[in-house]
User: What shape does this take?
Amino acid sequence: EIHQREYLSDGEMKKWDGNVHEVYSPICVKTAEGLKRKLIGTYPVCTEKEAFEALDAAVTAYDNGRGQWPTMSVANRIKCVEKFIAKMMDQKDIVVKLIMWEIGKSYADSVKEFDRTVEYIYATIDALKDIDRDSSRFTIEQGIVAQIRRSPLGVVLCMGPFNYPLNETFTTLIPAIIMGNTLLFKPPKHGTLLHYPLLEAFRECFPKGVVNTVYGRGNTIIPGLMKSGKINVLTLIGSSKVANELKKLHPKVNRLRAILGLDAKNAAIITQKADLKLAVQETVLGSLSFNGQRCTALKIVFVHRSVADEFIAQLTAEVAKLKFGMPWEKGVSLTPLPEPNKPAYLKECIEDAEAHGAKVVNEHGGTTVESFVYPAILYPVNNRMKLYREEQFGPLIPVVPFDDLEEPIGYLIESTHGQQVSIFSNNQEEVASLIDPLVNQVSRVNINCQCQRGPDVFPFTGRKDSAEGTLSVVDALRSFSIRSLVAAKLTESNKH
Ligand code: G3H
Assistant: This one.
């Protein structure tokens, strides 16, 4: 158990003796009353007072762009981040263990999350070196010599999601600070403890006030921070509803930059000409990796009616092979769900689909034991069901039969989401005919493969309500900065 009694603010690990939040793992233990989620630790429930102190520390460290950090050379900022990576590596084992216990991610995927985050930080450093080299060049146009720089934006409020509590927090936090901004971050409700072993590293590697943490209940501390008008950038990977509500609280919303990764309902389109075996393998990965709790997961599958029965038969057989178990068990891919209310919500989706004519077609589909939910394949799904539009963010695979490709295309056009789509077809002309209409609806079209964020050097964004701004390495560095110019006329007085 980890009983965290400190938080990082203004360069100090501040002691906390107030209220704490109890953290229960999705991993259950037997008790006299049956299976119960295991208590694995506690963390501070700070009040608005501490949150404002942390915000003021970030504001002071930025000092209207005149602080030590925003004026530090890029090379020196990179050195601080490199020092941080070394200290982060020392904490790998404990962080990985906490990812497993706090959110129920398998050992293999927890290690992957950690390693991928470190690789992302190295890639960010390389990309920044390129940007910095460009900034030292001069451009001459129409008698004006100019140096184009990338300058920071100010104070960033950073919030990550529970499904990638380390990776998705750091893929915004690191680009934000390395560009010279100062920051306060609130770890996700499920996935807070795992940040604790890294706080000391932040304190040691960065000047005071550059990185500050806020703990506690988001709905009591975050609105006040937004209303203060002192936040220049809001970055959040989470729900569209929360992001919209927070943005509205800012007194000068036109001066707020929002970099957001939001809800998604990615679709697979499996045509008559698809390689069904491949489509099934990728659908299983896309829909059920980390129990479907990925913003990039496939959340609805359209299959041509002529191949639907065969697809369902193969899909059912593949799902039956997946191993259910605890995160540390070898070869496990289905694990307990961290959100306590998720099993009830998934049950509601299944019942609603059944009431409108679909069936759970796989044995044990939807069976729930406390935090475990066995994946359910629902067929045939139609537009009267919740699962047709709502982002289930869990192990349910809604399958919709179609007769004409205009049906899934129409679905994507009407959808309020616009992150990704996967097309499965072995016919080049058919694929080519789908790319143009689809790439104008979503931000990534995948051909004969599942939807995913990676490789992480690729831009990561979404259309419509699925994102604002673009993340991933070079794009993230651009998102957390502004292009600015130092320009001079080529005159006698400017010749030096
Ligand atoms: O939840 C959204 C993540 O960025 C997804 O990343 O596609 O690599 O699982 P992933």
The radius of gyration is 24 Å. The chain has a mean pLDDT of 96. The pocket of glyceraldehyde-3-phosphate is lined by residues 163-164, 168, 294-296, 452-454 (CB under 6 Å).
